[in-house]
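Re: [ENG-882] Designed sequences occasionally contain unexpected residues at chain ends

Forwarding the minimal case from QA. C-alpha cells:
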C-alpha cells in the first residue's frame, strides 16, 4: 500500500510534542510491514537539519494557487532516520515557515492552510497517487476538505483520507478569508454546520470539524479518549459532529518507538539494563544523583517529565513534590511551561528548594537528561487532567519505572492498578487514582512509596511487570492498516 503522511511535525527533525513521535513511529512501523510511506512536512528554518540525510531539491518549481495568484515553492527530499520526507518551502512575502519557531503566530490558520494546499498541489503535479493520505490534527485538517472538493477532480479521485485527532483543544478556527485563499470559496456552502460551520461561533469555520466531516475515517489516540471526546467536556465542542459521524470514528492507542526508547541500548544513559539484569538500573540512579548534586541515600526517586500546563495537572505535580519529600523520597522534575505565570511559579519553587539535596527542578527541556531520568527514577507521576494518549507512562514502563497516573485517556488504557485492578496480576503495572485533588494523588503515590520502603522485592516485581508490557507500534500498526484497508474499498 502507498501511504502519504501530511503533518506539521515529525520527530526528531521537527518535534514539539507527541504528534511528531507518532508520525515518525507509525511511518516506520508501516514501512516494516512492507508499505511504501512518504511524509510531507513544511520546511521550517528551525528544523533539526542534523537529523536529515541527503537533503536535495526534488521538485524545483511547484506553483501553488493562492487567492488570485500563485506562490512559487521548492520541494526538498531527505531521509530522517530512514523515513522518506518531503519538505515544502514557499518563496513568499508571508514567510510562513522561516520564523524561528514552529507555532505561536497570529496567522497560524493561514500558514497551515497554505501548507495543506501545497501538499495536495505537490502530490497532484508530481504524479503521486497514494492509496491513503493520513493527516494529523488541525494543521492539516483542510487536506480532506480540499481533496474532496477540488483535487478529486484533478486526478486524485481514488485517494482516501484517514485523519487523526491528537489534541482536540486546538481545532483551527478561522474566518472566510481562508476559503478564498485556498480556492474553496463559497462561504455559505462551507459555513453550513453540516460541513465546516463552527457549532459555537456562527462567523467561523472549524478546520477540525471539516476533517471529521470529509475524511473517510477519523481516529484519536486511545480508545478511552475516543469515548471522552464524544461524551465529556474534553471534546471541546466536537461531541455532536463525532456522534453524527460515529460510524467512521475510533480510538487507536499510540505506540512507543522501542528503538529510540530502549534501556538495553540507549546512548543517553551510562548503564544499560533489561529485566534480566535489572539491578544495573540502580547505577543510573547514582549517576543522575551525581549529575544533579543530590544525596545518594536509600530512598525512592520520584520524577515528573513533561510540559507544565493546566492539562498536565500542575497543582498535582507540585503537590507530589512535597508529598514525596514528606514520605522520605526524592523528587526530580524536568519540564517547562508555555505560560509565563506557571514557569515563574516553578522558578520560584526551584529557588526555594535549591539547597534541598533530595529535590531538583530543571526548568526547560533536555532530551538526554529526560532519558537518564526515566532510567534512574523508581516512580513517575502523570497526574493529567486529560491525556489523549501520553507517552511518558509508556516510556516509564519500558525503563522499569513504576507509573502513578490519573485514570484518563490513554493513561487508563495503559496503566492498571497493582492493588485494585480487575486485570490478571501479570497485567497490573502501576498505581491509579481517579479524582483531581491532592488526596487522590496521595492515595496512589503513598502506596507506591510505601511499597518501595516496606517491600522492596514486591516493588521490583511490579517494575519488572511493567517492563514486560508491549506498547510498541506493533499492534497500532496493524490497527491502522485495517483502517486503511477498510476505507480503500469504500
Amino acid at each position: 500500500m502507498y501511504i502519504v503522511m501530511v503533518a506539521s511535525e515529525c520527530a526528531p527533525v521537527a518535534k514539539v510534542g507527541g504528534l511528531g513521535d507518532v508520525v515518525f513511529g507509525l511511518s516506520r512501523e508501516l514501512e516494516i510491514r512492507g508499505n511504501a510511506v512518504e511524509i510531507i512536512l513544511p520546511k521550517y528554518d528551525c528544523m533539526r537539519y542534523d537529523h536529515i540525510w541527503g537533503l536535495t531539491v526534488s521538485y524545483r518549481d511547484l506553483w501553488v494557487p493562492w487567492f488570485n495568484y500563485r506562490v512559487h515553492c521548492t520541494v526538498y527530499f531527505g531521509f530522517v532516520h530512514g523515513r522518506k520526507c518531503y519538505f515544502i518551502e514557499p518563496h513568499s512575502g508571508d514567510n510562513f515557515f522561516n520564523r524561528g519557531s514552529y507555532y505561536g503566530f497570529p496567522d497560524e490558520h493561514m500558514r497551515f492552510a497554505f501548507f495543506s494546499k501545497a501538499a495536495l498541489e505537490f502530490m497532484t503535479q508530481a504524479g503521486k497517487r497514494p492509496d491513503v493520505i493520513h493527516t494529523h490534527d488541525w494543521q492539516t485538517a483542510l487536506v480532506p476538505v480540499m481533496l474532496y472538493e477540488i483535487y478529486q477532480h484533478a486526478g486524485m479521485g481514488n485517494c482516501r483520507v484517514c485523519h487523526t485527532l491528537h489534541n482536540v483543544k486546538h481545532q483551527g478556527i478561522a474566518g472566510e478569508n481562508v476559503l478564498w485563499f485556498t480556492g474553496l470559496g463559497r462561504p455559505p456552502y462551507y459555513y453550513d454546520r453540516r460541513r465546516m460551520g463552527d457549532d459555537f461561533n456562527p462567523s467561523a469555520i472549524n478546520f477540525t470539524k471539516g476533517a471529521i466531516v470529509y475524511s473517510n475515517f477519523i481516529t484519536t489516540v486511545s480508545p478511552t479518549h475516543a469515548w471522552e471526546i464524544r461524551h465529556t467536556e474534553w471534546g471541546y465542542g466536537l461531541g455532536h459532529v463525532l456522534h453524527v459521524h460515529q460510524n467512521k470514528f475510533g480510538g487507536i492507542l499510540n505506540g512507543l518507538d522501542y528503538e529510540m526508547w530502549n534501556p538495553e541500548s540507549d546512548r543517553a544513559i551510562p548503564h544499560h539494563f533489561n529485566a534480566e539484569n535489572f539491578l544495573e538500573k540502580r547505577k543510573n540512579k547514582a549517576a543522575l544523583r551525581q549529575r544533579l548534586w543530590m544525596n545518594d541515600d536509600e530512598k525512592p526517586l520520584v520524577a515528573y517529565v513533561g510540559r507544565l500546563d493546566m492539562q498536565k495537572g500542575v497543582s498535582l505535580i507540585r503537590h507530589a513534590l512535597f508529598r514525596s519529600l514528606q514520605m522520605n523520597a526524592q523528587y526530580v522534575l524536568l519540564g517547562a511551561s508555555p505560560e509565563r505565570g506557571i514557569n515563574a511559579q516553578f522558578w520560584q519553587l526551584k529557588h526555594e528548594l535549591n539547597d534541598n539535596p533530595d529535590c531538583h527542578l530543571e526548568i526547560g527541556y533536555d532530551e538526554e537528561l529526560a532519558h537518564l531520568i526515566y532510567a534512574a527514577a523508581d516512580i513517575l507521576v502523570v497526574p493529567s487532567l486529560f491525556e489523549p494518549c501520553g507517552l511518558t507512562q509508556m516510556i516509564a514502563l519500558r525503563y522499569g519505572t513504576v507509573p502513578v497516573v490519573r485514570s484518563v485517556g490513554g493513561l487508563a488504557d495503559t496503566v492498571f492498578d497493582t492493588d485494585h485492578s480487575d486485570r490478571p496480576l501479570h497485567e497490573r503495572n502501576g498505581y491509579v487514582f481517579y479524582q483531581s485533588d491532592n488526596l487522590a494523588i496521595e492515595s496512589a503515590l503513598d502506596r507506591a512509596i510505601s511499597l518501595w520502603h516496606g517491600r522492596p522485592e514486591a516493588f521490583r516485581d511490579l517494575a519488572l511487570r511493567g517492563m514486560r508490557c508491549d506498547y510498541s507500534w506493533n499492534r497500532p500498526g496493524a490497527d491502522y492498516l485495517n483502517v486503511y484497508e477498510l476505507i480503500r474499498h469504500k
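QA comment: On inspection the terminal residues look reasonable. The first strand starts at residue 2 and ends at 6. Proposing we downgrade this to a documentation issue.
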